[in-house]
What does this fold into?
Amino acid sequence: MPEGKEPMVYIISDSIGETAELVVNAVASQFNSGHVKIRKESFVNNIDRIKQIVEEASKDKSMIAFTLVMPELRQAIFQEASKHDIPIVDILGPMLEALTKIMPADPRLEPGLVRRMDEDYFRRIAAIEFAVKHDDGKDPKGLLQADVILVGVSRTSKTPLSMYLAHRNLKVANSPLVPEVEPPQELFWIPENRIVGLTIHPEILREIRMERLNTLGLKSRANYASVERILEELEYARRIMRRLNCPVFDVSNKAVEEVASKVLHVVKESRQDEQK
It folds into this structure.
């Protein structure tokens, strides 16, 4: 290894190399300076490229940290590093080998799986934030960015359904339908297959609202839970849904998961139509 040169860590990965970089920086923090020069080589997927990188590393005072899952690439990097007497660390290998001994299936050996999982996680978080921001009619302009919009009277499971769908990476907004309040005009600009109406049996809705009032310590005979008010709201909602020409699902005695599966089917068909 050349003397007098600044130490360099080469990171070789078949994906971005973020995992290896995180480990290298964590270990480097144990030394006085807490800093090390890093040269990251991402998306390495052939032996010739590995030979080239190791040859370059031999010209520096260096070591190599790698995250490669394909066996032929892992073997090549060990062989090439050994030729040049370069210290090498296999970051994923020991864990991969240990898990292979206890897992019921063989590893998939697909480069980039960790990053794809991270991207899925961040999409889900963004969808949840979107659902919170656009819950119960907040920010009507955001309806135009939603994957699906849920409409219905109060207590038809719009919010829990929105959050469940958000965990499936869908951007969901929901808008309450109230006779005294005109629906946001944005609703009528959106394709009908991106809106889902939710309805419910009047007596079941009355029971739900009575329970809600009791929880809040309010009088059970409040107008919110009266049969007349509920029938008025449901009829108003039906008129709006007919104007929107959207699919309508009855949530009476239905689990959130059951209704969600129907909404997901609508979203799937909507996307297929848009791709035609």
Q: What stands out?
A: The mean pLDDT is 87. The first strand starts at residue 8 and ends at 13.
